[in-house]
Protein backbone atom coordinates (compact mmCIF):
# COMPACT_ATOMS: atom_id res chain seq x y z
CA UNK A 1 0.00 0.00 0.00
CA UNK A 2 1.06 3.55 -0.55
CA UNK A 3 2.10 5.32 2.62
CA UNK A 4 0.71 8.74 3.52
CA UNK A 5 2.98 11.09 5.43
CA UNK A 6 1.96 14.69 6.14
CA UNK A 7 -0.71 14.44 3.46
CA UNK A 8 1.71 13.27 0.76
CA UNK A 9 1.61 9.82 -0.79
CA UNK A 10 4.82 7.81 -1.01
CA UNK A 11 4.71 5.12 -3.68
CA UNK A 12 2.43 4.54 -6.66
CA UNK A 13 -0.95 6.20 -6.24
CA UNK A 14 -2.73 3.48 -8.21
CA UNK A 15 -1.26 0.59 -6.26
CA UNK A 16 -3.89 -2.11 -5.58
CA UNK A 17 -5.41 -1.91 -2.12
CA UNK A 18 -7.60 -4.38 -0.27
CA UNK A 19 -8.74 -3.43 3.21
CA UNK A 20 -11.14 -5.19 5.54
CA UNK A 21 -13.07 -2.51 7.42
CA UNK A 22 -15.55 -4.56 9.46
CA UNK A 23 -17.13 -8.01 9.81
CA UNK A 24 -20.63 -8.19 11.26
CA UNK A 25 -23.83 -10.24 11.41
CA UNK A 26 -26.42 -8.50 9.24
CA UNK A 27 -29.28 -10.92 9.96
CA UNK A 28 -29.70 -14.12 11.96
CA UNK A 29 -32.63 -16.47 12.49
CA UNK A 30 -33.29 -19.80 14.19
CA UNK A 31 -36.55 -21.73 14.15
CA UNK A 32 -37.51 -25.07 15.67
CA UNK A 33 -41.12 -25.22 14.44
CA UNK A 34 -41.85 -28.72 15.73
CA UNK A 35 -40.34 -28.35 19.19
CA UNK A 36 -40.70 -29.90 21.70
CA UNK A 37 -42.07 -33.02 19.94
CA UNK A 38 -39.12 -33.09 17.51
CA UNK A 39 -36.69 -33.73 20.39
CA UNK A 40 -38.39 -37.06 21.05
CA UNK A 41 -38.19 -37.89 17.33
CA UNK A 42 -34.45 -37.10 17.34
CA UNK A 43 -33.92 -39.30 20.42
CA UNK A 44 -35.71 -42.24 18.74
CA UNK A 45 -34.14 -41.67 15.34
CA UNK A 46 -33.08 -44.77 13.41
CA UNK A 47 -31.85 -42.97 10.28
CA UNK A 48 -29.70 -39.90 9.83
CA UNK A 49 -31.45 -36.53 9.74
CA UNK A 50 -31.54 -34.86 6.33
CA UNK A 51 -29.56 -31.63 6.24
CA UNK A 52 -29.68 -29.14 3.37
CA UNK A 53 -27.40 -26.12 3.04
CA UNK A 54 -28.27 -23.20 0.78
CA UNK A 55 -25.50 -20.73 0.18
CA UNK A 56 -25.53 -17.41 -1.63
CA UNK A 57 -23.67 -14.15 -1.68
CA UNK A 58 -24.17 -10.63 -2.90
CA UNK A 59 -21.98 -7.57 -3.13
CA UNK A 60 -23.15 -3.98 -3.06
CA UNK A 61 -20.98 -1.02 -4.06
CA UNK A 62 -21.15 1.75 -1.46
CA UNK A 63 -19.04 4.31 -3.31
CA UNK A 64 -15.46 5.40 -2.65
CA UNK A 65 -14.20 1.88 -3.51
CA UNK A 66 -16.15 0.42 -0.56
CA UNK A 67 -18.21 -2.77 -0.90
CA UNK A 68 -20.52 -4.65 1.39
CA UNK A 69 -20.29 -8.41 0.76
CA UNK A 70 -22.98 -10.58 2.37
CA UNK A 71 -22.60 -14.34 2.62
CA UNK A 72 -25.94 -16.02 3.36
CA UNK A 73 -26.18 -19.54 4.78
CA UNK A 74 -29.45 -21.36 5.40
CA UNK A 75 -29.29 -24.76 7.07
CA UNK A 76 -32.46 -26.86 7.16
CA UNK A 77 -32.60 -30.13 9.10
CA UNK A 78 -35.49 -32.53 8.66
CA UNK A 79 -36.30 -35.64 10.69
CA UNK A 80 -38.90 -38.06 9.34
CA UNK A 81 -39.95 -35.39 6.79
CA UNK A 82 -40.60 -32.83 9.54
CA UNK A 83 -38.48 -29.74 10.00
CA UNK A 84 -36.33 -30.07 13.09
CA UNK A 85 -34.69 -26.67 12.70
CA UNK A 86 -33.90 -23.91 10.29
CA UNK A 87 -30.85 -21.76 10.97
CA UNK A 88 -30.00 -18.77 8.81
CA UNK A 89 -27.22 -16.22 8.99
CA UNK A 90 -26.29 -13.32 6.75
CA UNK A 91 -22.63 -12.66 7.56
CA UNK A 92 -21.40 -9.38 6.12
CA UNK A 93 -18.18 -7.50 5.69
CA UNK A 94 -17.14 -4.05 4.53
CA UNK A 95 -14.19 -4.15 2.15
CA UNK A 96 -12.16 -1.40 0.55
CA UNK A 97 -11.10 -2.62 -2.89
CA UNK A 98 -9.20 -0.31 -5.24
CA UNK A 99 -6.65 -0.46 -8.04
CA UNK A 100 -7.30 -4.03 -9.22
CA UNK A 101 -8.05 -5.16 -12.74
CA UNK A 102 -11.71 -5.97 -13.43
CA UNK A 103 -10.97 -9.73 -13.36
CA UNK A 104 -9.03 -9.51 -10.08
CA UNK A 105 -11.73 -7.31 -8.55
CA UNK A 106 -14.42 -9.85 -9.47
CA UNK A 107 -12.30 -12.68 -8.05
CA UNK A 108 -11.82 -10.82 -4.77
CA UNK A 109 -15.57 -10.26 -4.44
CA UNK A 110 -16.43 -13.80 -5.60
CA UNK A 111 -13.90 -15.88 -3.67
CA UNK A 112 -11.64 -13.97 -1.26
CA UNK A 113 -14.41 -12.11 0.59
CA UNK A 114 -16.68 -15.18 1.07
CA UNK A 115 -13.64 -17.21 2.24
CA UNK A 116 -12.99 -14.56 4.86
CA UNK A 117 -16.63 -14.41 6.01
CA UNK A 118 -17.34 -18.16 6.06
CA UNK A 119 -15.65 -19.08 9.39
CA UNK A 120 -17.73 -16.42 11.17
CA UNK A 121 -20.97 -17.65 9.55
CA UNK A 122 -20.06 -21.28 10.32
CA UNK A 123 -19.49 -20.44 13.99
CA UNK A 124 -22.82 -18.60 14.22
CA UNK A 125 -24.73 -21.50 12.60
CA UNK A 126 -23.05 -24.01 14.94
CA UNK A 127 -23.88 -21.92 17.99
CA UNK A 128 -27.52 -21.46 16.92
CA UNK A 129 -28.02 -25.19 16.38
CA UNK A 130 -26.45 -26.18 19.69
CA UNK A 131 -28.25 -23.49 21.70
CA UNK A 132 -31.47 -24.58 20.00
CA UNK A 133 -31.14 -27.90 21.86
CA UNK A 134 -29.82 -30.01 18.97
CA UNK A 135 -26.57 -31.95 18.63
CA UNK A 136 -23.63 -29.81 17.49
CA UNK A 137 -23.35 -29.33 13.73
CA UNK A 138 -20.13 -28.26 12.06
CA UNK A 139 -20.28 -27.14 8.45
CA UNK A 140 -17.48 -28.53 6.34
CA UNK A 141 -15.14 -26.05 4.61
CA UNK A 142 -16.32 -24.69 1.28
CA UNK A 143 -13.98 -24.07 -1.65
CA UNK A 144 -15.13 -20.63 -2.79
CA UNK A 145 -12.29 -20.45 -5.33
CA UNK A 146 -13.68 -23.54 -7.10
CA UNK A 147 -17.25 -22.21 -6.93
CA UNK A 148 -16.13 -18.87 -8.38
CA UNK A 149 -14.08 -20.58 -11.12
CA UNK A 150 -17.08 -22.74 -12.09
CA UNK A 151 -19.34 -19.68 -12.17
CA UNK A 152 -16.82 -17.81 -14.34
CA UNK A 153 -16.47 -20.82 -16.67
CA UNK A 154 -20.23 -21.06 -17.14
CA UNK A 155 -20.58 -17.35 -17.78
CA UNK A 156 -17.73 -17.43 -20.33
CA UNK A 157 -19.40 -20.37 -22.09
CA UNK A 158 -22.63 -18.41 -22.45
CA UNK A 159 -24.35 -20.56 -19.86
CA UNK A 160 -26.51 -19.26 -17.12
CA UNK A 161 -24.61 -18.15 -14.04
CA UNK A 162 -25.31 -20.56 -11.18
CA UNK A 163 -26.36 -19.51 -7.75
CA UNK A 164 -24.05 -20.67 -5.01
CA UNK A 165 -26.29 -23.40 -3.57
CA UNK A 166 -24.88 -26.49 -1.95
Automatic annotation (TrEMBL):
User: Where is this protein found?
Assistant: Cytoplasm
Q: Name one GO molecular function term.
A: unfolded protein binding
- A Pfam cross-reference name: SecB
Q: Which UniProt keywords apply?
A: Chaperone, Cytoplasm, Protein transport, Translocation, Transport
One record GO biological process: protein tetramerization
A Gene Ontology cellular-component term: cytoplasm
The domain of life is: Bacteria
Note whether Phosphoprotein occurs among the keywords.
no
Q: Which InterPro entries match?
A: SecB (IPR003708), SecB-like_sf (IPR035958)
Where is it mostly found?
Answer: cytoplasm
Q: Does the keyword Cytoplasm apply?
A: yes
What family is this? Belongs to the SecB family.
Record's subunit section: Homotetramer, a dimer of dimers. One homotetramer interacts with 1 SecA dimer.
Function summary: One of the proteins required for the normal export of preproteins out of the cell cytoplasm. It is a molecular chaperone that binds to a subset of precursor proteins, maintaining them in a translocation-competent state. It also specifically binds to its receptor SecA.
Q: This protein is called what?
A: Protein-export protein SecB
Q: Which organism is it from?
A: Dyella dinghuensis
Taxonomic lineage per UniProt?
Bacteria, Pseudomonadati, Pseudomonadota, Gammaproteobacteria, Lysobacterales
